[in-house]
Structure formats: C-alpha cells, structure tokens
Amino acid sequence: MPLRRRPAAALLATLAALALPGCGAKVAPDSRHTAGRSPVTVVNCGVPTTYARPPRRVVTNDVGITELMFALGLEDRMAGYVMPDDKGDVDAVPWKDAYREVPWLSKKTLTKEIALDAKADLVIAGWNYGFGEDNGLTPASLKKLGIAGYVLTESCHHGRDAAARGVMPPLKALYTDLENLGRLFGVQDRARALVARYKKQVADAAAKAPAPARRPSVFLYDDGRDKPLTAGAYAGPHDIITKAGGDHVMKDLKDSWTTVGWETVVARDPDVIVINNYGDTSAAQKKAFLMSYGPLRNVSAIKHHRIYVMDYADLVESPRNPAAIAHLARYLRTVAAGG
C-alpha cells in the first residue's frame, strides 16, 4: 500500500503513481511484450528454469503471491487464485478490482485437481505455501501433467533435502520474484518501476530509523501455545523489522518461518512483540494469551504493553512489504523515544 505523496510536484507525482500497477491502475502493455516470444529462462530457487512461452492461465496460491501478479498488472493472465478467507479485507487494498475480476477458485488447499480444472499452464506457490512433498503437489508433479511451476523465492529450500527455507534476504526475494515474473511475462518495465519504487519506500523509512543504540528489540509472534511459530532471517518480518528500525531478536535463525522455545523468547527479552494477524485465532486472542502467559510476565514487551498487530499479507513476501516497513517504523520511533 503506497504512502500518500504531499503536494509539491503534485500533478506529476500523481500521474506517475497512477502509471504504476501497484496503485491498482490499469496499465498499458509493456513495450517489450509480444505474444509469441521465444522461451524464457529464469533462475528460481537457484535452478535455471525455462518456460516455453508466457503463461496465459496462471493459478496462484495465497494472498502475497496473488498480489505479486496483481501488482505487475497481470490479472488478465490468471485463471484464478486459491486463498483462505482469513487474510484480511481485500476491498481495502489497491488491487481490489483485480480481486473482483479474477476467480477465487478455492478457500481451502491448493490441489492438482484445482489446477487441472482451471486449465492452468502455470502454478505459482511456495514450499509450505501450497507446494509440499507431503501433499504430492510439487513443480515436478505438475510438470508431468503439462503444467509449469514457479516457487516463491522466500520459501526456497536451502538444498534439495534441507528442511530450512530461504536462500536470500527477504526484500531481495521480493525483488527477485518481481524481476523474474517481469521477464517471464514480458513486462520488465513494470517490474523495474515497481522495484525502484519499493526500494525508495524502504530507503525513506530506514533513513528515519532510530540510532543503532536506541533500536527496540522485536519478536514476531505468529501463533502457537506450546512453542511459538516465528520468523527467522529469511522470512519477510526480518527485513520489515530491521529496515523499520528494530533489532530482530531471531535474526540468527537461518530459516524462514519456524518454531522456537518460549525460553528463548524470555532470554532475548524483546522490547516489542509483533503479532501476525490471521487464522482462526484472532489478534485479540493472541494478545490475551501473551499478556496472560506466566513465563512471559517479566519480558519487556509484556510489562510495558508494547504489542503491535500487523496483517498476514504485510509479513509474508508480498507487494505490501515496503508500506508495512513504513508503518512499523513509525511505531518503533515512538517506542525508541520512550513512548
């Protein structure tokens, strides 16, 4: 969600913003796009992957991946998306018209049958974001059905047999996917414009971050009672917290989304806890649990009631990440100032 610009070069700024797909505007076809292009090869999770032609019936899994397509203005290339209905109000986002135009195929789990019924020629998902060896849905299994696959970079496995996920910093993963999809669909100009705009948003927020010695320490709480699910160095919250001016207490975890022990949270004593708002357990219920959970009673964030709620789509890899950094930065500046 882009920040509002104030008047100055107001008309020019507004026109420039409207020209970007991330603002929800319809965009003209990219000058480089042609319907019958040669095969395109992109590096996906470290593997050069060749696509014979630009896909025309894409199925995406989950909100962040779906909005990557929308931000690039590619809703006309989509056969539909799969997404639970616990991911917030999509009528409040810049891509609300795209959500109305593109079929919502299922509110449950992505399956081969859904892809086949949609006559998909490409499925974009991630490991544990739709793809999984346990459910038999993988790019390799889709290839046998004549359907190409693309793996969300945030979710890449460290290696063929590694359980840990993530191979690069989260914002770099976002930019990589935008650039790869831009090449695949022949909309490189759109992708470059979005990446440049997002980098500026992030740089503007980071420039206002508290001095290193005053940065609040931050723990991301996704869910879980016995053990909390949190974010490591390769999940979106790491860069969101860091660029916003916080010290991510789980930055040493070389994984994306993973569990830790509560004793680790207590030992690291975060100044702020960010709640990931989604799922059957509401943000209010998660907050109530944290505030009442005995082992956390002496943790700084709990003692000072510094709990900040962010939406799921802000925290997973998505076009909402840069604006999420700006929003969190404002809160962390207040904390650093003693608020």
Global Rg: 20 Å
Q: What about the largest sheet?
A: 6 strands, parallel
Which CATH-level-2 architecture of the largest domain?
A: 3-Layer(aba) Sandwich
Look at the structure and name the CATH superfamily of the largest domain: Nitrogenase molybdenum iron protein domain
Mean pLDDT: 89
Helix/strand order: HEEEHEHEHEEHEHHEEHEEHEHHEHH
The first-level CATH class name of the largest domain: Alpha Beta
Number of domains: 2
Q: How many β-strand runs?
A: 14
The assigned structural class equals alpha/beta
Name the beta content range. Answer: 15-25%
Protein name: Iron transporter
Family: Belongs to the bacterial solute-binding protein 8 family.
Keywords: Signal
Structural notes for this entry:
The protein is of the alpha/beta class. It has 13 helices and 14 strands. The strands form 4 sheets. Strands 3, 4, 5, 6, 7 and 8 form a 6-stranded parallel beta sheet that branches. The chain has a 4-stranded parallel beta sheet with strand order 11-9-13-14, with helices on both faces. Helix 6 (170-184) runs antiparallel to helix 7 and helix 8 crosses helix 13.
List key phrases describing it:
disordered N terminus, 14 strands, Rossmann fold, 4-stranded parallel β-sheet, alpha/beta, 339 residues
Strand and helix map with partners:
Blueprint: H1 10-18, E1 40-44, E2 47-51, E3 58-61, H2 63-71, E4 78-82, H3 96-101, E5 104-106, H4 112-117, E6 122-127, E7 130-131, H5 139-143, E8 148-151, H6 170-184, H7 188-207, E9 217-221, E10 229-231, H8 236-243, E11 247-248, E12 257-259, H9 262-268, E13 272-277, H10 283-292, H11 300-303, E14 307-311, H12 312-315, H13 321-336
Parallel strand pairs: 3-4, 3-6, 4-5, 6-7, 6-8, 9-11, 9-13, 13-14
Antiparallel strand pairs: 1-2, 10-12
Helix pairs in contact: 6-7, 7-13, 8-13
